[in-house]
Amino acid sequence: MNLKDCHNFSDFRKLAKKKLPSPIFHYIDGAADDEVTYKRNTNAFNDVDLVPNVLRGVENVDLSTTIFGKKLDLPFYCSPTALQRLFHYQGERAVGKAAKKFNTMFGVSSLATVSVEEISSLVDTPKLFQFYYHKDKGLNNAILERVKSAKFDVMALTVDTITGGNRERDLRTGFTSPPKLTLASLFSFATKPMWGINYVTRGKFELPHLQDHVQEGTSTATSIGNYFTKMLDQSMNWKDAENLCSKWGGHFALKGIMSVEDAKRAVDIGCTGIMVSNHGGRQLDGSRAPFDQLAEIVDAVGDKIDVICEGGMQRGTHMLKALSLGAKACAGGRLYLYALAAAGQEGVERALNQYRLELERDMKLMGCTKISDLNRNNLRFRNI
Fold this sequence. Notes:
Layout: H1 9-19, H2 22-29, H3 36-43, E1 48-50, E2 65-67, E3 70-72, E4 76-78, H4 84-87, H5 91-101, E5 106-109, H6 116-122, E6 127-131, H7 137-149, E7 154-158, H8 168-173, H9 186-190, H10 193-201, H11 224-231, H12 238-248, E8 251-257, H13 260-268, E9 273-276, H14 290-301, E10 306-310, H15 316-324, E11 329-332, H16 334-366, E12 379-381
Parallel strand pairs: 4-11, 5-6, 6-7, 7-8, 8-9, 9-10, 10-11
Antiparallel strand pairs: 1-12, 2-3
Helix pairs in contact: 1-16, 5-16, 13-14, 15-16
């Protein structure tokens, strides 16, 4: 199987599994506990039917949307994800350049393997930084100032990692950052020699935003679940989020909002957007799917802030359903991570282009020529 054989999300996943050592693949692929929410995130879209209109003159379709004051050519973007250098040696550079090519937004994690300074030198299209609120206030302040200096467009505070989720696949495979060989994983790494060669020869693995402040994740191997539990501030509250919003002074979002009550409070503290998200099912198993919560959150705050639906999307039709409910844009991590692992920048570009083509085709079949044409009249819910 090669990149040219990848025609959808599932194909990219299969190729990624072929390329990656087992612990690395299952870090991307896995979720919390019994992975009920992980599966639900995608299955939720199957509970809604599309009702198309015809004879609408759909020769030209405009997929653009505006979020955080920035116009994107696509109504979806690349969510920030940690440790991208482990998935492909090009890491965040590949994803950022691909996002730039399609003029959509690119998210960079606090646990990124490429610095915000380098990303800013490579990518002049809209950029979002995902902020993890650490116990170390000096680290928090240093990151904030670096991101400001790098002139990122949006700061997104992740609020659903107050402790690490129970990611049992990582426990079974022994996944850590940086990776370490164990008796259990030795065979898997040995059977993926190109990954190992690239990891060793293509530059040192680093977490540039963290390594001057903490050893965990760079010089000291740790699981991501342990990192969240030990290093992030479990006393973080609404006042802390409000203070960070004020210090940032620009477009500010909360990533991981799942209730109407929290969406309203986000408005109150000055947020300009929220990501309706459950961290890809990697935190609280048994929680609702973002898509299932989207309508009531849009109804409560959609006229005040940008509401973004994040998680579970594997098709253009999934995005189309979220946009029809009132999301300003969609986002995802696995949406492009499998493609990154499969073929670096070329893989991400192929994935983004396929989602673009799917959306354009689906819009025409729905009888819509722009995102604002999508509305709830085009949907029927099977469970109502």
